Amino acid sequence: MFSILLWIVAVIVGIAALLGLIVVLLNLWFIVLGKDKYTDAQRWGAIKWIVSWAVPLLTFSRTEMEGLEKLSDEQLKTGVVYANHQSIFDIFTFVKTVKRRHAYIAKVEIGRIFLLNRGMRLIRCGFLDRDNPRLAVQTMYDATKAVTEGILMVIFPEGTRIINGPMGGFKAGSFKVAVKAKAAIVPTTIYNSHMIGKRWPLPTTVKIKIHDPIPYEDYKGMSTAAIAKMVEGIIKADLL
Questions:
Q1: Is there a cis peptide before residue 213, judged by omega within 30 degrees of 0?
Q2: DSSP code for 103
Q3: Where are the beta strands (DSSP E) in the chain?
Q4: Which of 18, 90, 129, 210 could be joined to 67 by an S-S link, Cβ 3.0–4.6 Å?
Q5: pLDDT at site 28
């Protein structure tokens, strides 16, 4: 009995040591990637590479995406993806599946998570602090600038994760990025990502549907409140 307990303790210690080593190596890698000798495109490629193999390995999940071709450079010059938000895994599954370089606007709390914040900053993600208007304005400005440069921006207009229950209302302010960048709006519906944590270690299939992009000319002149209601309706219809 005692030998079995020792074996269990040894396994737990070994796993903890391995995870600790991985964290240290990732942190060092992110520090190196942050150096000026690397371009934004190289940083994006490195982050995508590690997410692409790590997500299926650690979460036992797979992703099915409908309409991926609508996000290609050929079909979408500039755009902002607006999606419902079920889980922190939404970001990981999106990075794993979408080949085009993109970034995110996340709430400031995500920016305080060790390693995750460093990795997200490397691909020009912004962290929105609604309690600090000056920094919030700067975050939105940086996101708009990135969109005009051809980087696909992904925003969750509910403002928080809705793990259980119906989809939350969309905040109109988040649509200022698309309006100011004069970019297409891409409504996107995410299904089942909240089940990854609930079902683990059982496998989970996350489904993502890319709806038809809405060109700037089609919503130009509308208020952000009206735009939010329109996009919310498109996404919510597929969740019913």
A1: no
A2: E
A3: 61-66, 79-83, 102-107, 126-128, 152-155, 184-191, 204-210
A4: 210
A5: 65
